[in-house]
Fold this sequence. Notes:
Layout: H1 2-35, E1 39-43, E2 49-52, H2 54-59, H3 73-82, H4 91-103, E3 108-113, E4 119-126, E5 132-138, H5 140-154, H6 164-181, E6 185-192, H7 195-202, H8 204-222, E7 226-231, E8 234-239, H9 243-257, E9 261-263, E10 266-268, E11 272-279, H10 286-302, E12 308-310, H11 317-334, E13 338-347, E14 352-363, E15 367-369, H12 371-380, H13 383-400, E16 407-411, H14 422-433, E17 440-444, H15 447-450, H16 453-465, E18 469-475, H17 481-487, E19 492-495, H18 497-501, H19 506-522, E20 526-529, H20 534-542, E21 547-549, H21 563-566, H22 573-578
Parallel strand pairs: 11-12, 14-16, 16-17, 17-18, 18-19, 19-20, 20-21
Antiparallel strand pairs: 1-2, 1-5, 3-4, 4-5, 6-8, 6-11, 7-8, 9-10, 13-14, 13-21, 14-15
Helix pairs in contact: 5-19, 7-8, 8-9, 12-13, 13-14, 14-16
Amino acid sequence: MIEELLARMKAHIQVRAAQTQLALVSTQFATTLDKIGQGVCFFDAERRLVLSNRRYAEVYGIPPEAIRPGMTLKEIAELRYAVDASPPVSFEEYLDWCESVNASPSPQDWSAELKSGKVIRVHHERTSDGGWVSTHEDVTEHRDAERQITHLALHDPLTDLPNRAALRKELDNLLDAHRASHSPFAVLCLDLDRFKEVNDLFGHNAGDSLLCTTASRLRAVAEPAFIARLGGDEFMVLAELDVNSASDLADRFIAALSEDVDIEGTRIRIGASVGVAFFPADGDSAATLMNNADAALYRAKAEGRGTARFFEPQMDQWLREKRALQRDLHAALAQQELAVFYQPQANIGGDVVGFEALLRWNHPTRGNVPPSVFIPIAEEGSLIIELGEWVLREACKEAASWPNELQIAVNLSPVQFKHGDLSDLVRSILRDTGLSPDRLELEITEGVLIDDFERAIATLGRLKGLGVRIAMDDFGTGYSSLSYLQSFPFDKIKIDQSFIRKAEQSQSAAIIRAVIGLGRGLDLPIIAEGVESEAQLAFLTREACDQVQGYLVGRPRPISDYAGYVGRETPEMDRILSAR
């Protein structure tokens, strides 16, 4: 009798201990669930809630105490529909859709935009008892950041007008439509007559204000025509008009842009010139029409400005000027007029981790010709192939000689991807120079991927197979940045300097912040180019950007000026760095 009593007491004690342990585990599990950033819910086979965390209710804007175990899916859906935390379908359609999802044995993922504007990402899995478990994550901010980046990729960040990439896309669409209908349309190229004077006299902020005013006036005059800012003070308009109507539009542009502008309390008259080309009379391709409109603009400015000119064949004098530069550029390499300069790249703490190789041309009569002038000329023919190989070989040979094994970054032109086997060239140069592949970083822009996507991706894959790193340069300035990041495993993202220059403006700051967050989410380091001020550096430091490049770190110079960084100390090093 006593033994039986002791056995019962022992069993009771074990049950109480098990219950206590179970309660402890349940408490720990509930605490863990509530610390998860995603909403989590468990339903049984009867479509009743078994367990959920607070975040599940919060994601849908429902008070956490309103959702309790034992509630049916239908009851919880009613709570969601009451606060517009529901998809844009009827209540019955939504329940039917849920049943179809639950019937599937395989895990499922989807994102849904709710009536409230939120975007929720859901992962759903069946359980062995016929119920399911799902996670619910609010990705609205991520969606908004992607939309911002996509918008900025197609728009000028200063004026919010479409940019060059958007213009080319629209022009290609117009060409397709008008070739079929054999109807004309106009391409108008505009720029301001005294913009540089305003910039020099009043500074860049005044120049930016003037560009925004110009954009507003163009919209007021030209809508519904397509208006784009190409860069600087150059704008382009696509209008489905005949000759007389296009002439009238050009005159209205000139009149609107000739009105006074208030710059820091001073009334200034700027004025504008316009060049016009027509499809099909003046060209049947995007490049020809844009070039001919630009040639007409060149003539308008040469004839006194404040006027409009239509393209005529004799206006191709500027093309002859370009051809002269092209001939000189062919000879420049042989005559040692070209040189590779190096600009340091540093981590956010200030330590130099590498250099970017940049081509410079010192013309015997023209002086220093900007890369923005001679690189496009080289890319129009095959000369960029020769120049690109020379720069890559020089940069790798130089980097291989450094005692400090820093990174070396080299830009690749889209043209280089279209001719020969680029991966074989890089392999040969690495072998000849002895540079370790993991020290070479090849920077590409979206232009590499636009023309022949499949070929470019295959070439990039072979390059990456050599062990070199691939960086996406000028991120955000094209129209497919995000999709390209999904298509290829890049090693670094480089934020374009146009965003860094405007970092103090809320819109640019938001874009920079979004790109840095995107890089963090993809586990990709971010480098910001064009860093010129301590304020820009401080902002990037606060946002945890990985690396920086720009005049604040160092200007492009011969590598001898950075001897100390690469491990070649010289007596002049301190003086050079202090004069940076």
